[in-house]
Amino acid sequence: MTVTTATALTIKTENKFRTLVSRRAYLAGETLCAIPSENVTGKPNRFTVQIARNLHTHVGKLAALNHSCDPNVVLDTDDMRMIARRDIAKGEELSFFYPSTEWEMDAPFICLCGSANCIHVVAGARFLPLSTLERHYLNPHIRDLMIELLNDTRKNLPAAQ
Ligand SMILES: [Zn+2]
Predict the structure, then answer these.
(1) Sequence spans of domains, the chain
(2) Residue 3: is its pLDDT beyond 60?
(3) Which residues neighbour ligand 1 (ion) by CB within 5 Å?
(4) pLDDT at residue 8 in the model
């Protein structure tokens, strides 16, 4: 499978609000582009995507990818690819579920996506209940960190009387 560069994607700016838009249609499961990995850092910021427990990659153009609680793309940090979660029309805004890669975000915000499943506060996976996370694609580092958190919680529970 060939992974295309991000040239099939374009950034649209309206009232200083940036969105990433597809320049052609995609079928569910298709790869839209590779996730850049040339510039990796230990700390998250608005321009990074978390790819492992302590690794955040500067994603360049993909930083214009907004969050949605009902997203149309998935960021697979195992294969370092952006994949269509469902069929995508030409000109459609692309979005992904930030907690699927981010454990604890540098800049949390309130989501106004309007989805019936909206999580409202987007701050990272560690702040979401398991029942919410289960409905989404989650990358391996998020699964690992979640299992760790759950194990620690159990340790901290008071002993049964
Ligand atoms: Zn939402």
Answers:
(1) 6-155
(2) no
(3) 69, 111, 113, 118
(4) 82
